[in-house]
# Entry
Amino acid sequence: MTNVAAGVVSATSTDAVNGSQLHGTNELINTVIEGKAGLVQQQTSDGDVTVAKNSGGTTVNVSGTSGDRRLSGVADGRAPNDAATVNQLAGLSNQVGNLDGRINRVENRANAGVASALAAAGLPQAYLPGKSMLSMAGGSWNGETGLALGLSAVSDNGSWVVKGNATTSSRGDFGGSVGVGYQW
# Structure
């Protein structure tokens, strides 16, 4: 048959369709199969793949009848709105773990420093004119310990006081201080 008019294409139509209508349908099917139209599109074989670029909605749900699905072969995210991969999250987890360990070490050293300062503060000193004193004291703070050794002296006329100390902590750090005072 030739010169057949275009038939009505609908759910209830009983019209015949012509070659032009079939060609249009085939072209549309090929466009969808090639990924140039429809929900998932790719304009060139090495171009970006887009999903639902011409529709609304803010969530893509890929779960099926068996439950959630995994996406595999995903590249590491680079842009702020890219998804992160397990590899990137594992790297971040390692960095957080390293930072946590470093913070713990700094906290322990700070606690040991406080313990050493408490030990130095606990050192008694000479107070009688012409006398000297060698002293030792210990301190503790948040599970860390400190030890101080001090030497002090008062001048014969009682006007000058000189003292110094050395400290160490449970973290192996050392410190010290010296001081001089004049009283009247």
Remarks:
- The domain at 112-182 is CATH 3.30.1300.30 (Pantoate--beta-alanine Ligase; Chain: A,domain 2).
